[in-house]
Amino acid sequence: MNSMSLEDKLALNKYDIDEELHISVNEDICRTCRNRVCLHICPAECFKLLGEKITYSYEGCLECGSCRLACSKGAINWTYPRGGFGIAYQYG
Questions:
Q1: Distance CA 65, CA 79 (A)
Q2: Residue 7 confidence (pLDDT) above 60
Q3: 53-81, pLDDT tens digit by residue?
Q4: What CATH number is associated with residue 27?
Q5: pTM above 0.85?
Q6: DSSP annotation of 10
Q7: Element (H, E) at 41
Q8: Count: domains in the chain
Q9: Most CB contacts within 10 A, which of 38, 59, 73, 90?
Q10: How far apart are CA 9 and CA 45, in angstroms?
Q11: Closest among 78, 77, 75 to 31, alpha carbons compared
């Protein structure tokens, strides 16, 4: 059996993307961070380093909240998307 890459597995997820952001980053606080845990903790790799700036994409968020919990500086404001939006998990 072939193992799938993370990118292949994430491509199978279904999302109903909302126009309203459910993640925001305080860039002033973020600039002072040297650990940048958000780059490593997000299982969907929503956070990227572009030059010296942290960028993020809320569209592929798995809604686990790891980024908010891991950010010791409180720079990440994360909430669940509005009802009916976000990732659609199916079991069975």
A1: 8
A2: yes
A3: 899 999 999 999 999 999 999 999 999 99
A4: 3.30.70.20
A5: no
A6: H
A7: helix 38-41
A8: 1
A9: 38
A10: 13
A11: 75
